Structure formats: structure tokens, C-alpha cells
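Annex B. Sample input.
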Amino acid sequence: MPAYNEAEGIEASVRDFLALPEVDEVVVVDNNSRDGTADLARRAGARVVAETRQGYGYACRAALAAGEGDYIILVEPDRTFLATDIYKFFAYAEEFDVVFGTRTSKTCIWSGSNMGLFLRYGNWAVGKLLEYLHNGPCLTDVGCTYKLLRRESLRKIMDRFTVCASHFSPELMIIAIRSGLVCVEIPVHYRKRVGTSKITGQFWKAFRLGLLMTAIIIRCRFKSYPQVASVVDRDSLNLEIAAPTTTTRRA
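Annex B, continued. Sample output.
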């Protein structure tokens, strides 16, 4: 959880995830918060890591580097995401190196969430640009923090991240896709935020962020990314699907 002044929601967010038996630990990266976020996170049971370089990208990169589990999940601490949605990610974790969340599925957008028409269709449009320019999977959201990465796969691309600001998410997606990792996008629930967003809470901030995301997507189109080996054995998975075992059903 990258966190900057998230005192209003950090304790509940940490406890929501720690309540799930599959979660070994919650790491909160305190990015120079001045409202006691770090102390509240510790009180809720999180391991707190300090990142003094200010910026959303710096905080996300520190969070990814600090994770020690077999699967690392990046998520916001503002209660917009459901902890139980990690089971959706787990359903795909054996078949993919990286699983991206999307907040733009209409039936998963909760009342009061910060996902109006401008943000929804803006994310969809920029997602499609990333999809087509970088030969990615179906993509409909470039700004969703909720992501799962296999730690073994993540370590192969960690040193390629460069973005320190709020447009880190599309760079992570581009690097994962262009480096040869097997990626997929799935819908996640998106609720009303606790507190005010520092990035998309105002129209012009959101518009500027969209331009930054578009720029990096276009700029990275002309970069070369050395290929890394996926840890997913696709041939083995295909064999299992092609040759299922049969059982006799008895009344």
C-alpha cells in the first residue's frame, strides 16, 4: 500500500486485508505523511516502510520491492478496493505472471465512487491506446492500482521502472507486457473513497494525468525492452485443458 496522508482509511484497509488467511503481511509505504499514517498502519498490524523520495511512483516501487510473498498485490489504502477481490486475482495467478485490475466495468462501480463518465471513458480510451501500441491483452483501465504480480516475475523487471510520479501505473503495464510477461486484466469492485484523492479529485489534475499517461505510452512505443522468461508453463496448462480426466458419476 503506497500511502501519503491516508490516516482516515489506513487502519481499516490494513485490517481488511490481514483478516484474509491467504495474506501473509501488509506492507505500508509511508511517503512522508504528516497525519500519523505510519503509526496508525503499525497499530493495525502492517509492516511500515519509509520512502522519503516524494512521489506516487517512488512509493509504489518501494512497496513492490518490499514485498516478500510469492504473490505481491499492489493496492490503494483508501478503501476504494475490496480486500476479498484478491480471490479473483488468485483465480488467474497460476496462469499469468501479472494480473491487472480494471475499475471501468459498469456493474462493479459503486455509488459515490470517483468514476464518472470522464474518468471511466478516459481510462478506457488510454487503455486501448496502450493495448494497441504495445500489443497487450484487452485493457480498459490504465490508472487502477490494484494489481497482482508473481514475485519471481516482478524481480526480472524491477530495475526497469523509471517513473516517480502519478503516471507510474501505465509504465508498469508497458514494461510487463513488452518484456514478455504473460498479462491479463480482470474487473474489480470500486467503492467511494475515504478522504480526498490527491491525483484525480479535481478535473484538471485528472486531465493532466491523462496527458502524462498518453505521453509515456506513445514515448515507450519506440523503446526496446529485453525479453525475460515467463514463469508460466503455458504448454502444461494447455495440455491439462486439452486432455481433462473423466470421472463416472453415480446416482
